[in-house]
Known about the structure:
This protein folds into 2 domains: 7-153 and 300-326, Rossmann fold; 154-297, Rossmann fold, CATH 3.40.50. It is built from 10 helices and 16 strands. It has helices at 15-25, 64-79, 108-117, 154-165, 179-189, 231-242, 261-267, 281-286, 300-310, 319-326, and strands at residues 7-10, 28-29, 32-36, 42-46, 54-58, 84-89, 126-131, 147-151, 170-172, 193-194, 196-200, 206-211, 219-227, 247-255, 274-277, 294-297.
Amino acid sequence: MRTAPPMVFGTPSYANMQRGLCDTTGWSLAHVETRAFPDGERYQRIEDDVQGRDVVIVGGTVTDEDTLRIYDLACSIAKYGARSLTLVVPYFGYSTMERAVKPGEVVTAKSRARLLSSIPTAHAGNNIVMIDLHAAGLPYYLEGAIRAVHLYARPITLQAIRQLGGASFCLASPDAGRTKWVESLANDLGVPGAFILKRRLSGTHTEVTAINADVRGSAVVIYDDMIRSGGTLLKAAAAYLDAGATQVAAVATHGVFPGDALSRLRDSGLLTGVACTDTHPRAQELAAEGAGFLTVHSVVPLVAECLESLYPEHTDHGRARGAALLA
């Protein structure tokens, strides 16, 4: 007897991705009643019966509030008898705080991983799907029986780079830290790669000392795993232009863009365009504002394919639709 399809829950910040996954897979859109009390405390009530069901929760740890929404919801869903539980965390917050550099620093990425690991285990197990982590070792911070899946947005990234780069370009890194990623992507694209050597002048200031490739007369596309304030990106763009690049664009998996970061990138005059995915809700919010400059690519088809591999008995719906979204 065929079991009911998985139920897909989502935090408010990821409601669009929740609906997109349901449209792509044909799985059930689940609902949570949510409201806030005057003192700031949250009320959540699961409106669907999860007893014996496979459950997916979509939500990035973009803020402490979002993190606790996921945690509270997942703990309750496990308590109410879900057969299995899969967390989809497109953006893992604090991923750059994965180790202590100075004595006494809190390794927040590790404590967040421990928090998610403490979610009660559903009968058939818990999974967590994460995308393009800043540090590949982060899944090893998870404890207990939870199974981690590190999903790479490579197909989407390559597509975005090709669209911005055009017929001929050089793929570049903003610093030496992303060199291996950029080298690998450049090999797949069949284009030259470049990276910048920097010298740190203080805790907040660096200077470019060299570029390892000749970019004169070439368009340059800079790749980084995430764009936050964009300060490093702008310094790199200026360095490549000073070295003779004809134009510079940028691609990242995670577009965080706090405050007026996107406006500063656009108004700098250093970049012809920026592309990212929708792993962080801020990118989706800014898509209209950055029209013509910011392009946002959906990870829904990639995540849907991953989820269907975790639940192969429920793959009758939507694979072609997911492929169409990625095309």
